[in-house]
Amino acid sequence: MAEDTMNGDSLAGLQAGALPIFFEQIHSQLLLAGSEVRRLFHGRGRMFDGLEQITCDWVGQQLMVSVFKQPSEGFLNNLKHGLIAMADSPLWQKCQGRSIVLQHRYEKGAPSEVLVGELQRNPIVVESDINYRLDIGQNQNFGLFLDMRLGRNWVKAQSKGKNVLNLFAYTCGFSVAAIEGGADQVVNVDMSRSSLTKGRENHKLNGHNLNQVKFLAYDIFRSWGKISRMGPYDLIVIDPPSFQKGSFALTKDYKRILRRLPELLNQDGDVLACVNSPKVSSQFLIDGMQEEAPELSYKERIDNPPEFADINPEASLKVLRFSREK
């Protein structure tokens, strides 16, 4: 990583001289993404020197660029010039690009600056032939975590005929994938009623039978009885935040969930346990499961999408499968 300096056109993780690599990557990844929602550039994985503090997403024919640290004036000017120039490229026309938005994540409120076109705040996007409605510009997260693409694909492929429990459901991405894959029922649990409402909309977008989907705006730790009554489950997905003030702290509370799994899971059921904190490794989940639910054994780690390559895989998203065998 570059040194933190205020000289010339570089700061830590933001070097103007590295921007040609940024634009080359966007061009090649945009060709691969086509019309699907996708991370095009992941500087946060520290695979590109001088670009560690910038990302770029392709969201509903919008280019969403996020800068995470105060850039030099030279870097910012070159970045904007290159992005605006993209709007005149044949590739932009081929991909039917609509707008280019620059989000200043280092500023309070993470304000967005529209460089080209108009911001589409609620686009409907496609991932693996599934539709999702996003909410752009209101929060730092727009309703679908793109690094979980292969996790959702795995759930879709494994859900046929199953009863699925989706803990910390957020906007129900796993639930939509499960029903799309033929699940008999999905039970979504999340404290945020507004997130679950968006999840319901995502199911409707895909023409799903909502009689097969439950939306429970519950505090998980106070609702085990209600959750258990809808089981036992063939597949349980656990995808918590690293920290949620007043309700969840990863290193303290994750084990409280793991110890409940034996009473919730069918004899040959699977658990997909996820953690996205760089402060803990896969071993945190493996050891925690062995301690709290030894009936479940570790089977595999689901790959992260290649566009989320990280110099240290243990600092990136960890998605681990555990199984309870007969």
UniProtKB/TrEMBL annotation:
The record's listing under InterPro entries reads: SAM-dep_methyl-trfase, SAM-dependent_MTases_sf
- Keywords in alphabetical order, please: Methyltransferase, rRNA processing, S-adenosyl-L-methionine, Transferase
What top-level branch of life does the organism fall under?
Bacteria
Under CDD domains, the record lists: AdoMet_MTases
Gene Ontology biological process terms, A to Z: methylation; rRNA processing
One of the record's GO molecular function terms: methyltransferase activity
Question: Any idea where the S-adenosylmethionine-dependent methyltransferase domain is?
Answer: 38-322
Entry keyword Transport: no
- UniProt keyword Transferase present: yes
> Under which name does UniProt file this protein?
Putative SAM-dependent methyltransferase
